[in-house]
Amino acid sequence: MRLLFFALLCCATLVRAGEVPVAVAANFAAPAKQIAADFEKETGHKATLVSGATGKFYAQIRNGAPFEVLLAADDETAARLEKEGAAVAGTRFTYAIGRLVLWSGRPGLVDDKGEVLRKGDFAHLAIANPKLAPYGAAAVEVLTALKLPDAVQARLVVAENITQAHMFVVTGNAELGFVALSQVLKDGKVAEGSAWIVPANLHQPIRQDAILLDKGRGKPAAEAWLNYLKGDKAKAIIKSFGYEI
Amino acid sequence: MLSSPDLAAIWLTFKLATITTLLLLLIGTPIAWWLARTRSWWKGPVGAVVALPIVLPPTVIGFYLLLIMGPQGFVGRFTEWAGIGLLPFTFGGLLVGSVFYSMPFVVQPIQNAFEAIGERPLEAAATLRASPLDTFFSVALPLAKPGFITATILGFAHTVGEFGVVLMIGGNIPDKTRVVSVLIYDHVEALEYGQAHWLAGGMLAFSFLVLLALYTLTGRKSQ
């Protein structure tokens, strides 16, 4: 009899512990992984993370992809999905605000005021595609705000996303580039090369919004994941990766 | 409709595919000839290297090209030493990538055509005191013509369809490295589906017509 009771209890927890498929912006993949590990330990639910470009996720979600939560790289995609009825209204919130950094793998190339952009001592400056990536759009705003000579424009190399922009700089093919602070931060410091953390007033804030998608409506695991993301523990992890919140 | 960046990308793609195909016919023909005729132990390894782009994901090729053509890579060091500068983000770099990427599509049809000739016509030419060079140009090349037609069409079309490699080493620079396939990807990602359709539909029609021409031409030959 007691055995049966335990068997039932076990099944009951199995039913309650769910799995939530989450589409995660590529720049947020690392913190999301860390948060997911804690989330699973504390709630028993499992978050299955898929990282990629937000624009691609949009197209996939509109065409029936099984994601229940979206952690976007911008604040437009979630709003758009909400408006089009593909996400649950009223569940959208900003989970992280990204910081932009001008970074080079070479120590000493980038000074802490970004004067290197004026000196023009480089052949290639990598940015993410401003049409597709919020970090790319922010980089273009910074270049405009600094009123840089047109010569800099001719040296831009445009990566498809912030991950590729980072790769262009890491491999040395571009001497420097605008990347996400979260990509070059290790234990709270810029670990390698030289960097200028761009003052936040030089560009629009890079708000990254999360939303509960239509497929996650009424799913306890999906709701638990979004709540967990708003909690203090998750916020501490998010901040440790160089985001603000 | 097509905007001026679209037209610039179409022209660039055409230019890239044309030069790549010409270069490949020049480089690929001796390689194909050697592969078709040799009994050397090296036939296997060389054939495998030529065929690599068929099985490797283009992102792998692009990633390694980016590394070896970069400032730390041996090709990058060589080009800097030679005063050419670094190849990534230039049209020349794209050309190098495309030649490697489309190599099997040019070499293999030519190699097959050379192998199909067999020994006899070549021996006959030799008994008529034709020099090896003369034999190659007056006997082997004309007999292998269908192979060259297939190689030219496939090499050109495959370069037009190139995407992953360009994405990795291109840097999306207008008039230099922004080809049609990358621009389609940008349009789709930016949710500009209308513009994407014009280019993507055009690409679909082009590819179909090219393959139709290929199969009609070679089909007639074999009948």
Overview of this protein structure:
The complex is a heterodimer of chains A (245) and B (223). By secondary structure, chain A is α/β, with parallel strands linked by helices. Chain A has two domains: 2-97 and 206-240, D-Maltodextrin-Binding Protein, domain 2 (3-Layer(aba) Sandwich); 100-197, Periplasmic binding protein-like II (D-Maltodextrin-Binding Protein, domain 2, 3-Layer(aba) Sandwich). Chain A has eleven helices and twelve strands. In chain A, strands 2-1-3-12-4 form a five-stranded mixed β-sheet, sandwiched between helices. A five-stranded mixed β-sheet of chain A has the order 7-6-8-5-11, with helices on both faces. Chain A is elongated, with a radius of gyration of 20 Å. Chain B is mostly helical. The longest helix of chain B is centred in the first third of the chain and has 34 residues, at 4-37. Chain B is globular. Chain A binds chain B through residues 53, 55-56, 58-59, 123-124, 126, 129, 131-132, 156-160, 164, 167-168, 171-174, and chain B through 66-67, 69-72, 85-86, 88-89, 167-168, 171-173, 185-186, 188-191.
CATH topology of the largest domain in chain A: D-Maltodextrin-Binding Protein, domain 2
Number of domains of chain B: 1
Strand order of the largest sheet of chain A: 2-1-3-12-4
Strand content of chain B: under 5%
